[in-house]
Amino acid sequence: MAEALQAQDFGAVGDGCMLNTAAIQAAIDAAALAGGRVVFAPGVYLTGAIFLKSGVTLQLDRGVTLLGSQALADYPLMPTRIAGIEMVWPAALVNVCAQQSVSITGEGCIDGDGQVFWDSYWLLRRRYEPLGLRWASDYDAQRPRLLQIYESFDVQVGGGLLLRRAGFWGLHICYSEQVTVDGVVIRNNGDEGQRGPSTDGIDIDSSRHVLVQNADIAVNDDALVLKAGRDADGLRVAECCEHIVIRDCIVREGAAGITFGSECSGGFRDIEVRGIEVHAPVPVGILFKSAPTRGGFAERLTLRDIKLIDVPVVLRATMNWNPGYSRAEIPAGMADVPAHWRVIAKPVSAEDGRTRIADVRVSGLQARGAQLAFEVEGVAQAPLAGFRFDCIDIEAQRGGYIYGAKDWLFSDAKIVLLAGEPVALPNDQDVQGLPSKTWHLQASLNKPDPSLQSFAVQDVS
């Protein structure tokens, strides 16, 4: 086993009061020279941003907490990607940047103590919204992430680690390869019911060969999410998120069980999600979200053995998600604006901005206590194509709707609609929720409009 270096030997004090950034970093730097581990005596270690090095294991045993400083100055600015845009942003609390063979393990805790950053966000957003700058508030209210893995290779995170109260996203994996996250618990809301904005769980962003398993997540935004860049900047970078496996996880709170987007400009390919259990109050089980300026694609996605318990919407797909955030326009008369505003607001043509999703396979899906089975609204020019549903078992009050879709096949699909309201298709057509129904939706364009529609549903049961 690699040599263990005690953080307290470098001056770290676990009293929750003394700032330990320099002491912990000195221990990490020494471990990098020895190819060793950094360990801690039980205690609460207040710290700003720390940077792990190649070959180092950060071992946080039970009883050890890294507590994030609430002073933004303790998180140095650095180049990174934030919400799909490459820009300068405060470092995370724990950073693995341009390194390899790094481990973060143990049953201890990384606590961002994020309330002060949540408050700063809401303050700025209240000021920005009347100016038409809802979209800019997310980029200008700087908040540290909890754990960043950036441009790195062969990184392991887990072993029962607790991640909590992130100032911004929890675990962000960006431009990295061969990353394994196994056995983390994420609790990003406050102890007294506070709800942190943008406190995602695990964001896998333009990365390859990533495995996430055995995660237990309760957050206030995306829980398990795939991302790949936003709009013109994401199309410029054009880095796909691919060869990803997410399995055997439970989502207790969040915006959805599993999410694709909305940052999808670089595309998603060869993603497998299986063995996911999602509970209320999570509002959506499976979520696809994009916007008219995102572009990108998704192909060869496999979702299987997903269990939804009292989740209101089984599957939602929207290509016009949250316009106030997604459509960045600099108000007329504003000339002296930050450079990143111009990057975010750079125009994207209608053709380049269409997200194309195809070849999605869903099997072994079970939902109980749902309100709606489907909320699907693609666009006629790039319909959501080639979805295959096999062995699904849904009980919902209503069927919902499917617009902007093409070539969807349901095989051995049991859809029980307790209120008797079927799945709506354009031109007042519908599909009844019948046990063991097999049907083929050939084309269903955007919304009911007789001049535009061309669709048919073929019952092949």
Helical content (DSSP H or I, runs of 4+)? 10-25%
What's the CATH H-level superfamily name of the largest domain? Single-stranded right-handed beta-helix, Pectin lyase-like
CATH topology of the largest domain: Pectate Lyase C-like
Structural class: mainly beta
Number of strands: 33
List keywords for this structure.
461 residues, mainly beta, Pectate Lyase C-like, 29-stranded mixed beta sheet, two-stranded antiparallel ribbon, globular
Describe it.
- This protein has 461 residues and is mostly beta strands.
- It has two domains: 1-181 and 195-203, Single-stranded right-handed beta-helix, Pectin lyase-like (Pectate Lyase C-like, 3 Solenoid), CATH 2.160.20; 222-461, Pectate Lyase C-like (3 Solenoid), CATH 2.160.20.10.
- The chain is built from seven helices and 33 strands.
- The chain has helices at residues 21-34, 115-128, 134-140, 231-237, 323-326, 339-344, 350-353; strands spanning 4-6, 15-19, 37-39, 43-47, 50-51, 57-59, 64-68, 77-82, 85-90, 94-97, 100-105, 109-111, 147-150, 153-164, 171-174, 177-187, 202-205, 208-213, 216-218, 224-227, 241-253, 258-260, 268-279, 284-289, 297-309, 313-318, 356-377, 384-403, 405-421, 423-424, 430-431, 437-444, 457-459.
- The longest helix has 14 residues, at 21-34.
- Residues 448-455 have low confidence and may be disordered.
